[in-house]
Amino acid sequence: MAKISPELKLNLTNLQKTLLDIVDETKAAEFLLLERFGETNETIIALDELTAISQQAADLYIQISRLLLRTAEIQPAITPDLLRLLEERIATIDNRVPALERSTQEIKTDWGLL
User: How do residues 46-100 score in pLDDT, each as one tens digit?
Assistant: First the structure.
């Protein structure tokens, strides 16, 4: 793997963990919502929102994985373009994660799933 800073690696790993947690939390909320209230006109909207949140988190996770794979394939050093791309994706994902978490919490609160 091309050498990237330990801080960058740690940041990417932490983002992946956070994104997996979001997927897990949204899927658990979907399950609880269906279990408690069933599939009704009212729950469909929340279920669709939870599915969208989960999909966004999964897509971001895959983006990080692909960038890390590309980094592993580059030898001996990371190119400035790829490093810039990694840093930009980290910034974008860092900004997106709180919104995904907040949306999930709002749905859980609205439906008493906490």
Answer: 999 999 999 999 999 999 999 888 888 887 888 888 889 889 999 999 999 999 9
Per the rule left: phi > 0, alpha: psi between -120 and 50, beta: everything else, 62 is alpha
- How many CA atoms lie less than 13 Å away from 96 in the CB half-sphere? 19
Angle among Cα 100, 104, 106 to the nearest 5 degrees reads 115
For residue 40, give the DSSP letter: -
pTM over 0.90, yes/no: yes
Q: How far apart are CA 104 and CA 25, in angstroms?
A: 8
Q: For residues 40 and 36, what is the distance between their CA atoms, to the nearest angstrom? A: 11
